C-alpha cells in the first residue's frame, strides 16, 4: 500500500529526506486549460489578447515562469530547486487557452510541483487580465502531463 511521503512516523508534516537520493535529470510538464468564452476570444489578435493591462499571454508566461521558480515559497513542504529551464507555451483551441509548462533540472527530487505551479499561475494571470471583459472565464483543469527522472516516469496522453 502506498503511503503519504510528507508525514513523519508520528503523522506530522515533514519534508521528504532526499539526502540519500542520486542526482538525476528531472523534467515535468503540466497543463492548465482556461475556458475564455466567445466574448474574450473576440479580442484574440494573432497569437495574443491585448488589453489595457498589456499582452495577456505574454504576461501569463512571465508570471508562470516566476511562480515556478518560487514554488518552495508557496508549497510548504517542497524542496528549494534551482531550475535549469522553464518553458511555457499558450495556444488557443476553440474558446480555450491551453497552457503547457515544461520544467527541467538536475537534482535529487522531481519538478512536478514547479510545472503545476507555473501552469496554474499562468492560468490565474489570464483570468486576472481578462476578468474586466467577462467573469464567465473558467480554469477547467490543471494536471500533470508527464514527468521523467527519479523512481518512476509518468505520461498522460490527454
TrEMBL record:
Alphabetic keyword roster: Molybdenum cofactor biosynthesis
InterPro entries, alphabetized: MoaC (IPR023045), MoaC_sf (IPR036522), Mopterin_CF_biosynth-C_dom (IPR002820)
Pathway(s) annotated for this protein in UniProt: Cofactor biosynthesis; molybdopterin biosynthesis
Pfam families per the UniProt record, alphabetical: MoaC
Residues covered by the Molybdopterin cofactor biosynthesis C (MoaC) domain: 16-150
Domain of life: Bacteria
Function: Catalyzes the conversion of (8S)-3',8-cyclo-7,8-dihydroguanosine 5'-triphosphate to cyclic pyranopterin monophosphate (cPMP).
Protein name per its UniProtKB record: Cyclic pyranopterin monophosphate synthase MoaC
Protein source organism: Nibrella saemangeumensis
Lineage, uppermost ranks: Bacteria, Pseudomonadati, Bacteroidota, Cytophagia, Cytophagales
Gene that encodes it: moaC
Amino acid at each position: 500500500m502506498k503511503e503519504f511521503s510528507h508525514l513523519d512516523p508520528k503523522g506530522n508534516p515533514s519534508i521528504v529526506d532526499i539526502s540519500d537520493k542520486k542526482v538525476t535529470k528531472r523534467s515535468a510538464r503540466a497543463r492548465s486549460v482556461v475556458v475564455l468564452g466567445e466574448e474574450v476570444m473576440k479580442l484574440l489578435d494573432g497569437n495574443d489578447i491585448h488589453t489595457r493591462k498589456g499582452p495577456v499571454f505574454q504576461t501569463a508566461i512571465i508570471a508562470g515562469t516566476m511562480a515556478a521558480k518560487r514554488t518552495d515559497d508557496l508549497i510548504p513542504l517542497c524542496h528549494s530547486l534551482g531550475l535549469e529551464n522553464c518553458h511555457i507555451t499558450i495556444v488557443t483551441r476553440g474558446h480555450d487557452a491551453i497552457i503547457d509548462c515544461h520544467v527541467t533540472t538536475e537534482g535529487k527530487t522531481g519538478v512536478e510541483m514547479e510545472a503545476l505551479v507555473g501552469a496554474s499561475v499562468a492560468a490565474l494571470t489570464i483570468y486576472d487580465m481578462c476578468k474586466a471583459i467577462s467573469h464567465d472565464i473558467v480554469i477547467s483543469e490543471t494536471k500533470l502531463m508527464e514527468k521523467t527522472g527519479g523512481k518512476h516516469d509518468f505520461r498522460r496522453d490527454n
